[in-house]
Amino acid sequence: MMKKKLYNPFLIWLAMLLGMFLFDKIFLILHFQTSHQVFFQDLFLLLLFYIFNKKFLHVSFIEIVHQNFFSIFKVNIVPIILSTVLVLDAFFLISERNSKVVDAITIAGSAAIFEEFFFRGLLLNMFLIRIEKITRVDLLAVSLFTSLMFGFSHIVNLHVQSLSGTLFQMFSAFALGMLLASVYLRTGSLIYPAIFHFILDFSTILIKGFITTSPTKQAFLSSVVLELVYILTSVILLKNSKTSQLVNKNVSVFNKKCENC
C-alpha cells in the first residue's frame, strides 16, 4: 500500500538529469578533460543532493543489517567472482596504460560514490517509504524502477558516443543496477555495491577506454550473458524471504517524519 505520491522520486531524478546535462554543456565550453568533468560533476551533484536531502527531504536510508561473514559472502558471491576476473584483466594492462590509471581511479571512484548514493540510496529509499508493508514483489518493483532510471540516465553520454554504443551502455547499466540494488537491500550497506561499481568502472576504463563503442556481435552476446547473470542473481536475492524480512526490520526508519519526500 502506497503512503505517498510517486512523482517526487521521478522529479528528483529529472533534476539530476538536468544537472548532468548542464554540466556537460558548461564543461564542453570550458574544454575540461573527461576525468575532470566526471569528477567535478559527480562531486557537485553528490553534495547538492546530500544537502537537499538533509535540509528538505529527510529520507532515511535502511540501516546496515548485522550478518555473519558467510552470509555477506554468499550475497556478494557474484560481484566477488566478477571483480576478481576484472581486477586480473586490468592488472596486466596497468603497466601498458599508466597514463590512464589515475583518470580511471578518478572517474570510477566519483561515479561509484555518487551513483550509489543517489540511485541505490536516495531514490530507492524514496520509493520504499511509500510502502506500508514491504513485500518481495515490492522490493523487485523498486529495484526495477530505480535500475531503469539508472540505465536511462546514461543517455547523457549520447553526445560523445554512438547511438548503438549508448543503448548498449544503458542496458548494461540497467542490469548492473538490478544486481547492486539487490545487494544493498540484502545487506543494508552501500559499501558493497560501491566497491563492485568502482572495480567494474575502473577495469572497464583501463580495458576499453572512456567511451562505450558499438559492440561487435561477439561482445554483444558475451555482454548479454553477463547482464542476464546480473538480473538472475538480483531476482534470486530479492525473492528470498529473508531479504524482505531484513528490510521490514528497518520499517521504523521509514516511518520517521518525511513530509517533503
Automatic annotation (TrEMBL):
Pfam family, any one? Rce1-like
Example GO biological process: CAAX-box protein maturation
Which molecular function terms from Gene Ontology are attached?
endopeptidase activity
Ranges for domain CAAX prenyl protease 2/Lysostaphin resistance protein A-like: 101-202
Keyword annotations from UniProtKB, A to Z: Membrane, Transmembrane, Transmembrane helix
Q: Which family does it belong to?
A: Belongs to the UPF0177 family.
Instruction: Report the protein name in the record.
Output: CAAX prenyl protease 2/Lysostaphin resistance protein A-like domain-containing protein
